[in-house]
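G., the chain you wanted modeled:
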Amino acid sequence: MLEKTAASLEPCGFYRVVPGAAQSFRSTRQLRTTFWRHGAADLELTTAWQSLMHGTSDPVIGESAEENNDSALGASAFLLDFLYPTGAATLLRQLTSVTPARGRSNGFPYGQNSSKLGTRLYTPSLSRRQDRQPKTEATSEQGPRDQDDNPLADQAGGEHVDQSQTAGMVQTPDQRSDSESYKKPIQSNSDVAELTDTTRSDDHGHDHTEALEKLLDTDDPESADSIWNHYKALDASSQPAYMERVLLSLSKRKRLTDLWKISELFHQIPSSAWTDEIFVAGVAAERNLQNADVALKVFVEGLGLERLDNTSLVDALDLLLSSALRSSTATSLKELWAHYPAMAQRWDFEGITSQLTDVAAVPGLVDKALEFESCGRPALVEPDGTGPSQEAIDTLQRLLVRRALTSCAMSHVIPLLNVSKDHLAFEEFLQSVSFPGGVIPEEKRRLGMAVYRLYRDLPESQPSHAALHSVFYASRSLRLPSSEMHAIAELLWKDWHTFHTNPSSSAFRSYMTFYASEGETDKVYDMWKEWIKLYSDDPEQNLLEAGDTFTYLLQVHAVRGEAQEVQRIFNFVAQKFHLEPNGVHWNILLNAYAKARDYEAVVSTFDKVLSVGMADSVSYGTMMQMAADRGDLAFTIELYQQALSSGVRVDQAILCSLVEAYCQNDYFGAAEDMCVRASKKGFATIRSWNILLHHHALRRDLAAMNQILVSMADLNIPYDPNTYVQLLTGLSLCRQSHHALALLTTALKDKIFKVTHDHFHIVMGALIRTGEPAVVQRLHKLMQDCGFSSTSESLFKLVQSLSQWRQLPPEQRSRHTPKEWLHQTLHAFADIYGLNDADAALQEVPDNRSRPGKLLEKKTENVHFSAMIFMFTEGRDFYGARQLIDLYRHTFRSRGKSNEALPISMLTSVMRMDMHEKQYDQVKMSWDVLVELARKEGQSVNRQSEAPEISPRYRYILSPGLEVMQEVLLAERDVIGLQRLFRQVRLAGFEIDSKNWNHHIQALATLGEHRAAFVWCEKVLMPNWMGWNVARQRQNVKNQIPLELRQKGNNPRHLRPVTKTLYHLVRSYIELGEQSSFSPEAASTAEKIEQQCPQVMRAIKSMQRVQTNFEYDIYDRVEF
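Predicted structure as tokens:
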């Protein structure tokens, strides 16, 4: 069967194995049946396997071996040779003599069973003497078959087969004159004549030389057989000139079938002529031929040759050591390591670890390294104590540990390092935990710090510059909590001074960059002064001309939003040192004004950057981000077009700015289309998609969020932790707190995404929104149990849960009185900012927020204090609320500026507190300040419009204050002032949310402005009214409106009437009806309302009483 399979690989020889058919088959089923109807002759493999093993036992094969009649195969050393096209043809010619297809004997008709053949045509035991016998009468008289008798034509459906194409595929015995003809594969039809003529004339030798020269210049792996055949066709005097080139060419192709050829050539080259490449190729060939003793002998001989480079010797050691480690016994390893002294004289073993790539790929290397002390070391030492020295064995152990660290699991790293306590192994691992421009697994980066702590505590350890840098960069890339990262930075900076006395200049730059990004002014200035003192006189540093000398001072103030200080340093450098600001300095100045929210200064600075020709993608990205963040779409598009015309490359910041601007203006279709088109071009990032998700979440549109996620999946955009932040935000705002909690707990259990503090904060906020304080407290404990430290935000959520003490379980609620709960809340909140510490309370914070735009910011402390003031105001603890205001002024306002205006969120809470204390004049004064500052700082930069506009981001900024003002005017029953208030807000360019519209209509109805109340409700609110829930229940209609519509109803910007508003209008309509009997004016008003407000009237007339106290409170218990 094996012989027939091999024979079938020969072109035009398949029909000799499969019995012919009496007729051609066109059916697939018939063809398959015919294929399996052949018989299998007896197997005869004795001579075949001897032929296939040719070249593996004796590395030196001479001419006599090729003439050996007992070996029928001289073209291959391995069973896989037939997989190569030329090798397959050579294999078949060696195995048998084949009659050409066009001259097939009529004595082998179709349909004859192959098992009945008297003489088997395909047998590896056929000797070459039979091939060299004269032609038999049968073969000499054979002629070409007619086309009708050609089996190929018959099986091809009658198509003619070109006989010239099949002529060169096989050879008859009479066409081969000697053994060399068997070794030459036929490359094309033009080679037939040359290869059948085996005379070694000068002309033919010249042809082989030219062909060999061409083939040696190519890298085609299929040309290896041709190279060998042409080389062997050269005469004995020409072969030495090409011997080395042929050897190197064959070794580069890395074919298993060429190993015995490389070995044959290598042993013909004297050691005095060995080069580095030839030496490695020879060792590799003997190693792969499993001639371990010969390979070791060659390696030892190479150790004594001074001209061989150490690199080639180490490469050879890598091959031999990996082979010895793969062996089931320690014999090879023991024999190799016996030459350790000679190897140690040639190179330093400490510096060759990275070259041992073959050793690193040994299966089970980690286990061998871990068990070396118990298994490997005893196996290398003889019972009588002889064997490699202790130093040699220790060196081998260190090599194994270092190589195992490159491929082991993270759980094996520390055990491996503890095996040898090798300083270099620690160094190599620590330097691998961060790689500029590369992607290092987070687990490995986290492990780096643990390994470093072990390393620094080892005796005589001295972490190198590279190790200290690597650990620092790996820690920064993890985005650890600020306190944890500061602790690591402090430890590493201390070690710089401990192990190296003075940190390197690059270390100063790295740490100043870190502390500048954190806004640590004192740290940056102290390091900067030390850096200048140490390296200002170093000619290699030349700090004065370095472009980053003053960058760190500028950056630390820019991060803190201290734009004026950045401007001062910027001007000082130019005037004092006469240095022209570079592009980085301009961008820092631009970013400083952006951080300060000084829109006008950002625009003017950007114009200066353009004028000096320093604008780049960072400049345009900073300017566009600020414009987009405010929602100035026209200005953002103008900047984008300007950047394109200037040849600026569009980067992530520019793309995200465009998406943000479209979303701020509710052009979600355009924003999504931009993300899709950019993703198809391979340009969009996950950040742009997250922006889109964020704005859909703010609008409570879960259906749109789901569609975005589907699009991301279709475009193979991966989710990141921020994607899940947006999903949790959407669920939280839609009051689906339990769905958000389920998603978070599933992530913690199944690791579907990396959970961060932000995810816990959002879910805790969702639970507070739905009034579940007990669950908030349990979730905070879960966060701590999962290894997350408490943050100011999580502690504040706990404080908010304490303020909801009425929703706590009865046994927990009864522990304190309402006033005690409030005081406990205040103390817990004070602990967050350290205000209970007397010394900390007396410290003043520098004024780093005295800048334009401060009232519009939503800083953490602003939100926290405003929420606490609101809690105490609702609890009517005005004294506690005043205390909080004083604490805020003292903590976040510097001396002399304590009377400065508060942020807008806090100012609104103060207005509410003054309203409850009936200090209406104070409320109106705060309102005037609020409107003026909001108009000034929220103004849009729209160069295409002459009239001032409010940026879309700030159009609803007055909504909380407007609500307080309406309650004040309602209490004063000032209907004219109420209408003037709304007119003032709308004319200033601000928008009014749904809650304020409902309050306004309720107030108008209460104050007797019936027609205005009805008209505004009809015009503004009723288009989004979905009908009465009670009516749907009683009329057997689907009880719930679509989920997406109900979720949109929670959006403050989705204008719709609430039940209370319609109740007030019902009461107004009743009052008009009662007055119509004696007041023509009331009757006329009622008639106009019915004509102008059909939707409101339909809602009033279809309303059904539910007899609740809420209704009675509005209707004053009147019947209708």
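The two ends are 104 Å apart (CA to CA).

Shout if anything looks off.
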